[in-house]
Amino acid sequence: MRINRSSAMDQAKRERIEAKGWKVGTVSDFLELTPEEVILVEIKLALSQSLKERRQKLMTQTELASKMSSSQPRIAKAENGDASVSIELLIRAMLATGATPQEIGQVIIGVG
Amino acid sequence: MRINRSSAMDQAKRERIEAKGWKVGTVSDFLELTPEEVILVEIKLALSQSLKERRQKLMTQTELASKMSSSQPRIAKAENGDASVSIELLIRAMLATGATPQEIGQVIIGVG
DNA sequence: CAACTTTATATCAGATATGATATAAATACG
DNA sequence: CGTATTTATATCATATCTGATATAAAGTTG
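Above: the input entities. Below: the structure tokens describing the complete assembly.
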């Protein structure tokens, strides 16, 4: 996938990525992210979204937090794609909702 | 997949997992890991191994480290499944070798 | 074998992610 | 409406992960 500043699709993607503090350094310009960094952020956002959908069907943020000895605010951040949340936590949360490696792998594949 | 202490497969898996400092707390007993924790470790080990295979075909640890502004020792740890390496770094390294989300997702699916 | 390249191990100061807590905002619902 | 539940935001001390450095060990090649 090529990064093209002017296309409508990339415009939307850029807005999604920049929404929650996803900036590199001080300047918030899409082109300051390498392609690899963009993919990494997209993976995080995809996991976030999938987590939110799964969790909402099953339990509250507080319940999930206690299942994985985390805190409700951290789950909120995870579901909102906050930049301070690691992939590790996202995957731990997915697993705590009962997600299998298959499902997690599919989410990542869906980024491509 | 069920965890069964006495089966030969789990014996082998346990040894793989415990090899590089993967212990919970002070006691190194397989059963102190929750099923979710086991899966998480397995995901890390699978990424480690895949990274090592990909990297070896393409470049040295030093080259990969410089590509992703990391260090050779950290790449060594990543490839050896050291417990101090985050999934985040493993995925960043995979991407730096040119891996796509498809390939990364497949590795995780392979854990199931 | 020796010189060279590559990988592994040890240490550490700084950066980043963490759970906890307080509380505000939003949502559900009687 | 008001009240209870759920989710979001802010702050913070601590734990974990990080790249850097030094150096040892292993592997390669002449």
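Note for the figure: The helical segments of chain A are 8-18, 35-58, 61-67, 72-79, 87-96, 101-109.
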